[in-house]
Specification:
Number of helices: 12
Shape: elongated
């Protein structure tokens, strides 16, 4: 929603200011220039990225127009889920959650937390490390190192779309210059026509540079920044799980382990101690 509002503000400010200064908006409508810039950018995008990067970017692009998936409610559900799983382990032993770990879709515990269950990456991260805790002999330090490596891999993968979009935005001004040069070439070969028509051709050529810069810094570049922020948010979810499970593995009670996880969250998403405690009790 804010992306659309932002685009409206950008267009309103730029084109509105141009019109208020006495410019004719019709002169800025140059579909051929847009074709040159957009086509060149698309071709460069396909050439400069692997199929994996292209698919990841296309998949991530629609999320720019949606709100954040990682809200305060999501984190509270996550910590309530971890509290319940770890509480069951404390009361009945590690083997008691084997069924929940192997088939989370059929688990009555996971079923209480649909927001978490719908995110297969988060569910997989939780169940994988609970499975290691149930069946493995790794100590807390080894598990922490393994978690760090996986989180780093996830973070690198999540940042891939933002990097591809950023590179695309960086190239837009250059493609605008290419379109402008092509327009100048056309103008130079048209020498001899009336000055009024020659001026129009020059104006059309300059629109290419304008469009390239506007698309780069007003449209494409901000999307790269937004995708980067969304990647950072997704990583924070995994860090919360990591800290909570490690705290429990080091002997802390479920309530204290969840408190460790709560401290990882940034202030805008972090629930208060009492707020989280009450939420956990309601879910039990």
């Amino acid at each position: 929603m804010f992306v659309i509002i932002g685009y409206i503000i950008v267009c309103g400010s730029v084109f509105g200011g141009f019109a208020m200064a006495g410019g004719h908006l019709g002169a800025l409508f140059q579909p051929i220039e847009l074709l040159m810039i957009g086509g060149a950018a698309l071709g460069a995008f396909l050439v400069g990225n692997t199929s994996k990067a292209i698919k990841a970017t296309l998949k991530a692009f629609p999320t720019c127009f949606k709100g954040s998936a990682y809200t305060k409610d999501s984190y509270m559900e996550l910590m309530a889920l971890l509290y319940e799983l770890l509480g069951k382990v404390r009361k009945e032993g590690l083997m008691s959650i084997e069924g929940d770990v192997e088939k989370p879709d059929e688990s009555p515990i996971f079923a209480k937390y649909p927001k978490i269950l719908s995110d297969h990456h988060v569910v997989e991260f939780i169940t994988d490390y609970l499975r290691i805790m149930v069946s493995g002999n790794l100590n807390a330090m080894e598990i922490e190192n393994l978690m760090d490596v996986e989180i780093e891999t996830h973070h690198h993968e999540a940042l891939l779309p933002s990097h591809t979009i950023a590179k695309l935005g960086d190239g837009m001004p250059a493609f605008g210059i290419v379109a402008a040069v092509m327009g100048v070439v056309h103008t130079m070969e048209s020498v001899g026509i009336p000055p009024a028509e020659l001026g129009m051709l020059i104006a059309h050529a300059l629109v290419g540079t304008f469009l390239g810069i506007l698309l780069a810094y007003g449209f494409v570049g901000p999307l790269a920044g937004l995708l980067e922020q969304k990647a950072e948010e997704s990583t924070k979810m995994f860090q919360t799980i990591k800290v909570t499970l490690l705290a429990n593995l080091n002997g802390y009670a479920p309530a204290m382990a969840v408190e460790f996880g709560r401290k990882v969250l940034i202030s805008t998403e972090r629930p208060g101690f009492t707020e989280l405690e009450e939420h956990v009790k309601q879910k039990r």
